[in-house]
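ok so dumb question maybe but i'm new to this and my supervisor (M.) told me to 'just get the structure for Stomatin (EPB72)-like 3b' and walked off. so i did the thing. is this what she meant?? sequence i used:
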Amino acid sequence: VRSAVELHRGQKHIASTSKGIRTERTGSLGCIGWFIVIVSGFFAALLFPITIWFCVKIVQEYERAVIFRLGRITDRKAKGPGIFFVLPCTDNCIKVDLRTVSFDIPPQEILTKDSVTVSVDGVVYFRVSNPIASVANVSNADFSTRLLAQTTLRNVLGTKNLAELLSDREGIAHSMQSNLDEATDDWGIKVERVEIKDVKLPHQLQRAMAAEAEAAREARAKVIAAEGEMNASRALKEASLVIAESPSALQLRYLQTLNTIAAEKNSTIIFPLPIDVMTHFMRK
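this is what came out, is it supposed to look like this??
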């Protein structure tokens, strides 16, 4: 165990030493490089009134400047905001915008998990979190992020069925954001938000879904009507039991019905016949 630990420490020390050597070699300009830098600085100081317009650089609050000196990045941190000086012959300054950028994902024809072809588009919001990585690790961070967003949209929606696509847009957007943010981390890009804008279905599928929804609504309406009739029949049964127990209640109900008929048809004259007269014949 002790030998294994010592071997691991030795490998770690060698790796850290080689990493330090690699960093030192990358950051060093060499003798020729320093000679060119000194000559450039000498001429810049000699022609100061003219070279001042080439040496002074200004970046805005929302910008950062990545400086390459003889093809090498000078500092580990980007310059700005404000004013700084560069050498006109040896330094190359690239400005990077740190503001949030949004772009639309073009409509993509996607085959879902249940073999339905849909057209989906969306919008992505991202910003540059590491200016040096966005310049040194990828040729065009904006264009690469746009292409990656299209392929990520296809890959994520290809694992979903139509019902999940229509009902779980927030979950799909969150999954796309996680995948994009993880893939663009090495490029110095931070994906802040992804939204699904529109899902277009084929016309035949739209008609089929509309017919299915209409049939479901009709079935629900019939169930509700049947439940209403059942409740009404129970109420009528209870009312008939109450009326059977009290003859006067039947007389009041009869008078209420006559009042309703008289209110609806005013030209009709009704002569009510007392029920007590009818009961005598009904008994016989």
